[in-house]
Amino acid sequence: MSRIRIFFATDIHGSTLCFKKFINSAKFYKADIIIMGGDITGKFIIPIIKKNNYYEYTYLGTNYKFTDNDELNKHIKRIREGGYYTAILDEDEWIEAQNNKDKLNNIFEKVIGETLSEWINYADNKLRKSNVKCFIQPGNDDDYIVDKILEEAETIINPNEKVVEVGENLQMVSLGYSNITPWRCPRDITEEELNKKIETLMKNVNEGADIIFNIHVPPYGTGIDEAPELDENMRPKMGPGGVIITKPVGSISVREAILKHQPILGLHGHIHEARGFAKLGRTLCLNPGSEYQEGILRGVLIQLKDNRIRDYLFTSG
To answer: Among 222, 267, 316, 317, which residue carries the largest CB count within 10 Å?
Structure first.
């Protein structure tokens, strides 16, 4: 009799606190497999400006000034726990970066690389002596430098665009891309390209194997892909009474692939506010949502018995 316990989370967007919670979820939930579904890197840098005898920065509308290096480390820790990166620069360096896109990109790539390397070391130290399988893939927001850094890990497997064994006669098909978004992220691709990638992967699935889809973007029109509808200024549209208008933004290709191949489980993310579940045929599709800016790791714990879902539980902590 085969039993597997899976913990799935996604969309932590650079939050060091959420990453550490994810790695420790293996022990906390007694999980055999932990999966991070994409969008692991942050979106913004908070510049900490080094002046003559003090540091200064603005974070969430509040200006901070301090002189002590111990205070500096505390501020960096708090900022990074909320999913923002930090860069210590003098005023001239920051002015130059603001006026030079290549300079700013170089700073951003540097802090992404440093942060991911720290995360990898943390994961390796925590998981090295365990039998836990840890899968972390990039999402549509993540730059392609992420893949190279993940390959350096001892205990982490990047399953993106691969078919991997996760249990006896159980394989996982993973894809970190999304259909086109208004933000034109690094891994936004057309529905046709999504379809092609999924079908190419399915050719590598063993005949008769049960399948898990670990696909970052959720299937279209399932409720777990509902996001605010945006106006021409990229602001949410408001309905009567100030209610935000939402619409489905998931992938039609992913929906069609699920209906065609009927995996036992679909693990998705991408839409932070669309926490929930949906059924497409026999497939249970899950989106745990995301609250990374609050340092809260939202996830879902799934129990499999003989490659069938016995129960699942949304988690938050």
So the answer is: 267
> To which residue do tokens 């003098």 refer?
90
- Residue ranges of the chain whose pLDDT lies below 70: 1
User: pTM for the whole thing?
Assistant: 0.96
Domains of the chain listed by start with CATH number:
3-44+110-316 (3.60.21.10), 45-109 (no CATH)
Three-class DSSP labels, the chain: CCEEEEEEECCCCCCHHHHHHHHHHHHHCCCCEEEECCCCCCCCEEEEEECCCCEEEEECCEEEEECCHHHHHHHHHHHHHCCCEEEEECHHHHHHHHHCHHHHHHHHHHHHHHHHHHHHHHHHHHHCCCCCEEEECCCCCCCCHHHHHHCCCCCEECCCCCEEEEECCEEEEEECCEECCCCCCCCEECHHHHHHHHHHHHCCCCCCCEEEEEECCCECCCCCCEEECECCCCCECECHHHCECEEECCEHHHHHHHHHHCCCEEECCCCCCCCEEEEECCEEEEECCCEHHHCECEEEEEEEECCEEEEEEEEEC
Written as six digits, the tokens of 103 are 């300079």
The answer to whether residues 199 and 253 touch, using CB atoms and an 8 Å cutoff, is no
